[in-house]
Amino acid sequence: MDQPDAAAPAQDRKAPATIYDIARHTGVSPSTVSRALNKPGRLNPDTERRIREAAKELGYRINPMARALPTGKTGTLGLIVSDITNPVYFDLVRGAERAASEAGFTLIFADSQESGELELTTAERLQSYVDGLLLVASRLDDRQIQGLSSVKPVMMVNREVPGIPAVVPDVRPGITDALDQLRRLGHRRIAYLSGPPLSWLNGMRWKTLFDLAVEWDMSIVEVKSTAPTREGGAEAFQRVKAAGVTAVFAYNDLVALGLLRECREHRIDVPGRLSIIGFDDIFGADLPTPALSSIKSPLSEIGEKAVRRLLSELDGTQGGTEILLQTRFVSRESVAGPHEVQ
Amino acid sequence: MDQPDAAAPAQDRKAPATIYDIARHTGVSPSTVSRALNKPGRLNPDTERRIREAAKELGYRINPMARALPTGKTGTLGLIVSDITNPVYFDLVRGAERAASEAGFTLIFADSQESGELELTTAERLQSYVDGLLLVASRLDDRQIQGLSSVKPVMMVNREVPGIPAVVPDVRPGITDALDQLRRLGHRRIAYLSGPPLSWLNGMRWKTLFDLAVEWDMSIVEVKSTAPTREGGAEAFQRVKAAGVTAVFAYNDLVALGLLRECREHRIDVPGRLSIIGFDDIFGADLPTPALSSIKSPLSEIGEKAVRRLLSELDGTQGGTEILLQTRFVSRESVAGPHEVQ
DNA sequence: TATCGAGGGGCAATCGATTGACAATTGCGA
DNA sequence: TCGCAATTGTCAATCGATTGCCCCTCGATA
Beta carbon of B44 within 7 Å of strand D? Predict the structure, then answer.
């Protein structure tokens, strides 16, 4: 006998309460309500209490749009990554989220699908919603980024651009440890399976590795990959093999995993004939046999720091332009002495 | 001789252009500008063109906050997942993003960190920003969700609530295939390593599996896990072992991976002594040896469909209340006949 | 008793865009 | 040449919250 759709609340939505409703309810003016809610102490304690109670009773929730209009502040930050499905960004996203919500800010994520054009469009679209933008591993060129930054504050992550504040990992410690381990194990000829040419981080990794290898008198070559993915790593297998090295650093773990899998398919013993080291220590790096060694960035910390710095930038409390966070080498089974297994 | 900070555009940000600027620039009134930009054809084609040109020239970008005030539409959707770092959500997020941006909407993500309380808070906070909410695998109870839905449209994903539209996978096809394969291989006693009791999907998986096992005259038991994570799976190892089954379905791939790893640690042969099947076919499921078999949901499609339905809900074009999408079994190395390896 | 000052609270303008109502212009036919 | 309708554009109110400025009240002090 019940009405068929009794459970469906879908239709009529009550308009949310405004400060005007509260004002009417308590017999004060809207401005007083605004003050009661935003400037504790400015009003008679009793009035303030009455207003607060009425607000609670009416289920008042501030309308962020309406507030944003006079203040120009939206209480929102935008985070743009090149590929949201890349496991690398997990911890970063999580760290950023935590820092943002601690500060009462809302984080908006977007994804540029590895396309510079789309990244620019997205960034511009997002800029009208947010108070500031976080660009992670941006593929834009310096000028475009400076352009964005002339509209609203921009914070770079895993990339440096003159004049723009940034939070980046210091790749040196991790690379030094890893290379040192390889050297001790007897490796002399190594390769770097590189990533996207436009990636700042790719450049840093290569340069740091190169300099160190030269310094330590090891031979090093760059092997290019076609994409920073597992497919890209698999596809580069023949070229890596042809390079005749005993160890390879891959641009990131995805590429390393692809290569690792392909080695297995072709019965190339890892780590016996080839040691493989990735970057980022993403989810799943420890899953294969052999488990992948990797150079880990403190990504969640990077996310947090980036948000916090952006927020302090919004306050006007700008610090220096760059924050460095240390990487470290996570050694797993994919590394051993060359030809250890005959 | 350059100024030290010449490259730093940080400081003075020019205020963005408004329709008033355009109006002044072209000698018409602001309302005309608004019409030119929003109602093509309403104005003299020549006027419209002039206004559009001026808008471009001044780099005009609409202020979404200002627009939201009179219209009540923000052009934004909110997506809440229980844990943003869970690889399960990758494809879902990506599909949702694609559908949203196709429609010119911006997607806001949030994460409830597996906590019902936080989920409610987050949902409420988000609601004032967005036109509609997508709740993925929500841990809230039906009443809370109906409450949210009385404020703004809500769309459920991977969960059903009376009266609320939903997009969910149909777990039957995948489970049927998987169980059928196990049966043919000779398995008779299986276990379900269950997930969070509050998870609707967990309930569906268990119930479907149970009914089918009973129907096919196989014995089945539920083994509880403490968390839907790799740790949770590893931790359940002893209980699974004690259950004396030859095959186990795990609530999701994370749990399955945890269990798989623990089997290896304890030298329990998979799939020889125990076949393992997960759900979701997440990134990395194919990485371990043996590679994990899994029942896959079309997550990216689910994300897309959910957004599209929510959008049509906003239009008033509401369809039915439920959309089902088919799952399928992805068979890999973690499944074989029992005791195949003696 | 007159004056001063501080605390408490209201008024009204403002942010940027939208939109219903209305006014001005134009063109056309009679 | 006049009138009418269609076309084109403007006015002004509105959305919800903020905030500078001003006024009122009341107690304290001279």
Answer: yes
Interchain proximity B288–A283, CB inside 8 Å: no
* Cβ A244 vs Cβ A188: under 8 Å: no
Using pLDDT thresholds of 50, 70 and 90, give the confidence band for residue A226. very high
Instruction: State mean pLDDT over B93-115.
Output: 89
The DSSP string of A260-322 is HHHHHHTT--TTTT-EEEEES--TTTTSSSSPPEEEEP-HHHHHHHHHHHHHHHHHT----SE
Which residue's CA is nearest to the C1' of nucleotide D13?
B70
Which of A5, A124, A146 minimises the CB distance to B61?
Answer: A124
Strand D lies under 7 A from the Cβ of residue B128:
no
Look at B84 and A76 and tell me if their CB atoms are within 8 Å: no
Tens of pLDDT, residue by residue over B265-309, are 999 999 999 999 999 999 999 999 999 999 999 999 999 999 999
Q: Which residues have CB under 8 Å from A204's CB, separation 6+? A: A168, A171
How far does the CA of B93 sit from the C1' of D14, in Å?
37
Mutate to test the interface with A, among B128, B154, B276 (most CBs of A within 10 A): B128
Residues B103-139 as b or e (16 or more Cβ within 10 Å = b)? eebbbbbbbbbbeeebbbebbebbbbbbbbbbbbbbb
Residue of chain A with shortest Cα separation from B74 = A65
pLDDT at A321: 66
| pLDDT of residue B321 exceeding 80 | no
| CB of B63 within 7 Å of some strand D atom | no
> Residue A17 pLDDT more than 80?
yes
Per-residue pLDDT tens over the stretch A42-87:
889 899 999 999 999 999 999 999 999 999 999 999 999 988 778 8
CA of A21 to C1' of D25 (A): 27
Cα-based distances in Å from A13 to A86, B70, B149, B311: 39, 17, 8, 17
CB contact under 8 A, B284 and A284: yes
Q: Are A227 and A178 in contact (CB under 8 A)?
A: no
Q: What pLDDT, on a 0 to 100 scale, did the predictor assign at position B342?
A: 40
Give CA angle at A209 (A208, A211), nearest 5°: 65
Domains of chain A (ranges, CATH numbers): 19-62 (1.10.260.40), 75-167+299-324 (3.40.50.2300), 170-298 (3.40.50.2300)
pLDDT band with cut points at 50, 70 and 90 for residue B6: very low
For residue range B233-272, what is the model confidence (pLDDT) as tens digits? 999 999 999 999 999 999 999 999 999 999 999 999 999 9
Interatomic distance B175 CA / D27 C1' (Å): 81
Q: Which of B7, B16, B74 sits opposite A162 (nearest CB)?
A: B7
How far apart CA B205 and CA A248 sit, in angstroms, is: 43
Given B106, B152, B283, which is nearest A129 (Cβ)? B106
| Residue A7 predicted with pLDDT over 60 | no
pLDDT given for residue A318 in this prediction: 66
How distant is C1' of C22 from CA of B47, in Å?
20
Query: With 80 as the cut, is the pLDDT of residue A340 above it?
Result: no
CB spacing of B287 vs A283 below 8 angstroms? no
Kindly report which amino acid residue has its CA closest to the C1' atom of nucleotide D9.
B32
AA identity, residue A276: I
